[in-house]
Design a protein that fits this description.
mainly alpha
């Protein structure tokens, strides 16, 4: 490519207005993306913990409301759930 005296560009290649980001800019963008992904993962973990706790509470409610006597396994699970809720 050659520039003429008037500032026009002559040559076979087209000149595009957008340039690719520099190395430092690309690395900075990558770090920002990593921090954002980390916060998303933390939020997801929090939601999953809350969901797990809610499922355990629902299961415990079912055991408490059950009119029939509980089997040995159900009773041990009920006691385990109660101890997890209190501890």
């Amino acid at each position: 490519m050659r520039k003429t005296v008037g500032g026009d560009v002559q040559g076979d290649e087209e000149v595009t207005g957008a340039r690719p980001p520099g190395i430092k800019a690309a690395k900075a963008a990558k770090k920002k993306k990593g921090v954002q992904e980390e916060s998303n993962q933390t939020e997801l973990r929090t939601v999953l913990k809350m969901k797990d706790k809610l499922n355990k509470q629902k299961l415990l409610e079912k055991f408490i409301e059950k009119p029939d006597p509980l089997s040995e396994m159900e009773m041990s699970l009920k006691l385990k759930l109660i101890s997890e809720m209190l501890g």
